[in-house]
Description:
alpha/beta, TIM Barrel, 33% helix
Amino acid sequence: MKLGAITLQNSVCLATAPWELDGPGYERLGAIFTKTVTMEPRPGLPGDEGILQVADQTLLNRTDLRVEGAELLVHEHLPRLRRFGVPVFVSITAPGVPGFRKIARYLEREAGEQLAGLEVYIAAPHSSAGSEITPRFVREATEAVRTELRADAAVIVKLPPWPDHIRGLALGAQEGGATALAATNTLKVLHLPAGPPAAPLVGGLSGEALRPLALRCVWELANDPQLRLPIFGAGGIFTLRDVEDYLRVGAHAVQVASGEWLSPGLSARLASEVAHQMPAAR
Ligand SMILES: Cc1cc2nc3c(=O)[nH]c(=O)nc-3n(C[C@H](O)[C@H](O)[C@H](O)COP(=O)(O)O)c2cc1C
């Protein structure tokens, strides 16, 4: 897969890479995408408390998880993730367009040469003000990030799993200068834990239960005559068959998150299988 100036060696990528990533085979991946960082760290639950398995191969990623700041990423996490020798894309988010501009400018200045590009996590802008995710917001956020990066860095815009709306959001990303799309992020859900009544948990659903929705989103994007951007498919990828399904509906590459969380090393194993059994898809 070509992403502007970058060619990915494999169609399997790791999404939401653990900061302590270690083990064999990750050098075969197409790329590593980091967990999302914000300009300032956001306190919250550590991953082992905030991520729950709610059904078979299906996770709930709680909304109140801790988020690392950009400074720690640059000084501690990025060098560790880069040692696998594959392109690293840093996932960023911000509450509004100026925030996206600020973090992109900081990362370009402090770590520009170490980054293959940025992944723009489109989350609700100014959520406390009730603003919504619109094509215009996506275009402006993408444009702000694009403008701050060197020309050969990729800007990948990661969208929510909304089949009825994803096309408009993707067109916004394309107009804003995105290099590629990623579909999809987690689905906002509410989970009532089993047992005695407890507070409902809000968070993002991922894994097996998300796959049909994410496949539909990829298909909507891949079949739109106005959209020309390559697509990373994400949602419930556990097997080679899942990778093939995403490529069949129009993805150019895939990202694995829940599968890696449930079975560390899965993304590396899938990348190896793709290299051996689907050489054309590398
Ligand atoms: C444990 C966990 C943490 C995640 N953290 C992030 C994140 O920090 N930023 C982001 O954009 N997506 C995050 N995601 C979403 C994944 O990158 C992916 O888009 C989504 O989960 C669908 O893929 P999956 O079904 O393989 O998990 C996370 C998912 C999981 C399971």
